[in-house]
Write a structure and sequence with these properties.
The chain is built from 6 helices and 15 strands. The chain has about 325 residues and is α+β, with helices and mostly antiparallel strands. Strands 4-3-5-6-7-8-9-10 form an 8-stranded mixed beta sheet, sandwiched between helices. The structure holds 2,5-anhydro-1,6-di-O-phosphono-D-glucitol (AHG) and manganese (II) ion (MN) (2 copies). The site of 2,5-anhydro-1,6-di-O-phosphono-D-glucitol (AHG) has 12 residues, from strand 5.
Length: about 325
């Protein structure tokens, strides 16, 4: 018998078919992305999602591809960045799956890493209630990054595993069964063009990083901003650091930019299971609960000591 698309060893048996379907579809997506301009048009604007974000051809295509493959599996409810409401896929399904089918849309046409992010809960009878619950109730959180290599990073609550796609064999191969975020690092990631809009604790934290050896952190920093959450997550899981997408004063950014259910919650689960921390600046993301399907929440994650330091800034009295 041929090898399965992913070995079952670290995957709860009941979830295996869903994960295998995600893997199979992600391999097709990776193939489409790798062809870039030699294949179909990927980066053209084709519409808007319910929140007014532009939808590119690849956003919509990926959403359709994941919907089609998961319909055949035990996914009852499907919530997607690209769809206004929760979709019923399989009446008999046990699970509720939330997905950002294509993360990092602004990088589609420039040959920079993009990804897919997903989160799985046990399904309830009510569609929305299946997702509007504490992030700590996730059964699984993970992402696929389509970069120089395609990699799957996933947790089921017993550590974070990394698999790399072998493109010839069309299989994911386990490369790290227990990822661990380095505790020390000199890198931070934030979209610094928003500096003037940030709240004071965030400005203070970044000012201290920029002050380098002469500041309170006593070391020089390096800054990185890819613009794809999956790519930043993958870098930070590999070599430590901190990521911030805080709330800011621009209209529509009162709760930052990233969506709780299919971006922040699964990334937080993966990060915490690798020994890091993920908060909204103060409160752990896993203790938070979305109130709307597409609701946003500030996100700060990475090496534990760095995330703790940001929380300390938030706890300081305003002056
Ligand atoms: P998406 O492509 O799914 O809309 O997500 C884009 C997100 C995230 O990947 C990234 O961290 C952030 O948007 C970038 O935001 P800025 O353009 O404000 O830097
Ligand atoms: Mn996204
Ligand atoms: Mn997206």
């Amino acid at each position: 018998m041929s090898q399965p698309v992913i070995a079952p060893d670290h995957i709860p048996a009941d979830l295996y078919d869903v994960i295998a379907a995600l893997c199979t579809t992600s391999i097709e997506v990776a193939g489409i992305i790798a062809k870039g301009p030699l294949g179909q048009s990927l980066g053209s604007l084709v519409g808007e999602n319910s929140d007014g974000d532009g939808q590119k051809a690849l956003d919509v295509l990926c959403d359709e591809m994941f919907t089609a493959s998961l319909t055949r599996e035990s996914v009852r409810w499907y919530a997607s960045e690209e769809q206004e409401v929760v979709n019923l896929l399989n009446e008999k399904g046990k699970y509720a799956l939330a997905i950002d089918p294509l993360d990092g849309s602004s990088n589609i046409d420039v040959n920079v890493s993009i990804g897919t992010i997903f989160s799985i809960f046990e399904a309830k009878d009510d569609a929305e209630a299946s997702f509007l619950r504490p992030a700590s109730e996730q059964l699984c959180g993970g992402y696929v990054v389509y970069g120089p290599q395609t990699a799957l990073v996933v947790t089921f609550g017993a550590g974070t595993q990394m698999y790399v796609l072998d493109p010839e064999a069309e299989k994911y191969v386990l490369t790290n069964e227990k990822m661990s975020i380095p505790a020390t690092s000199k890198e931070f990631a934030i979209n610094a063009s928003n500096y003037r809009h940030w709240v004071k604790p965030v400005r203070d934290y970044v000012d201290n990083c920029l002050a380098g050896v002469t500041g309170p952190h006593g070391k020089d920093y390096n800054m990185r901003w890819v613009g794809s959450l999956v790519a930043e997550t993958h870098r930070i899981l590999s070599r430590g650091g901190i990521f911030l997408y805080p709330s800011d004063e621009r209209k529509g950014y009162e709760n930052g930019r990233l969506r709780m259910i299919y971006e922040c919650a699964p990334i937080a689960f993966v990060i915490e299971q690798a020994g890091g921390r993920a908060t909204d600046g103060e409160t752990p993301i896993l203790q938070r609960q979305a109130t709307t399907l597409h609701g946003r929440i500030p996100l700060v994650f990475g090496s534990a000591d760095k995330v703790t330091r940001v929380a300390e800034h938030h706890n300081m009295p305003a002056v």
